[in-house]
């Protein structure tokens, strides 16, 4: 039986990424005709790039779910948590397992997971609000997802060498 130790560093980094996802979702809202878009998705991508699939999924699910709960979007808490985790799980599978030696593995993984993210949100909106609404919000959701992928990967590219050494030394 394999047991794993969770270090104080792991707890601190996970908590920090949950907080960044929450802040990006809750505070950096951009109003749209169908609600709002936010910067939380780029923090989810960043968390996955920095911490890996499992920790990225936890950060994305808890941070975004907490933002929905505190923001009054209670009907969205569980779907958000499931959909953000699914995005990260697909990203991790593609980036860290299937294409781990490919130069753009993080981009391809994030895009593959992003497509799942868009599909899941669109499908849940059909029973909640109807087909018209679900497809009317597709463009906004796609732009939010794409901007999260681009910004998250760009931020990771800018900080990966500095952060990797800090995390290793900590």
TrEMBL record:
Q: What is this protein called?
A: ECF transporter S component
Keywords associated with the record: Membrane, Transmembrane, Transmembrane helix
Under the heading InterPro entries, the entry gives:
ECF_substrate-spec-like
GO cellular component labels: membrane
Source organism, top-level taxon: Bacteria
Organism ancestry: Bacteria, Bacillati, Bacillota, Clostridia, Lachnospirales
Q: Is Membrane among this UniProt entry's keywords? A: yes
Q: Where are the transmembrane segments?
A: 12-28, 82-99, 106-124, 130-156
Recorded source organism is Pseudobutyrivibrio ruminis
């Amino acid at each position: 039986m394999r047991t794993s130790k969770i270090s104080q560093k792991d707890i601190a980094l996970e908590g920090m990424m949950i907080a960044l996802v929450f802040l990006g979702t809750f505070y950096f809202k951009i109003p749209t005709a169908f609600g709002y878009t936010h910067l939380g998705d780029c923090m989810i991508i960043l968390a996955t790039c920095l911490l890996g699939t499992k920790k990225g999924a936890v950060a994305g699910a808890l941070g975004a779910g907490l933002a929905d709960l505190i923001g009054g979007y209670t009907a969205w808490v569980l779907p958000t948590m499931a959909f953000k985790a699914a995005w990260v799980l697909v990203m991790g599978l593609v980036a860290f397992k299937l294409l781990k030696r490919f130069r753009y593995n993080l981009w391809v993984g994030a895009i593959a997971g992003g497509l799942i993210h868009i599909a899941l949100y669109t499908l849940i909106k059909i029973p909640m609000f109807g087909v018209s609404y679900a497809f009317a919000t597709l463009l906004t959701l796609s732009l939010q997802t794409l901007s999260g992928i681009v910004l998250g990967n760009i931020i990771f590219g800018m900080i990966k060498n500095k952060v990797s050494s800090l995390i290793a030394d900590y």
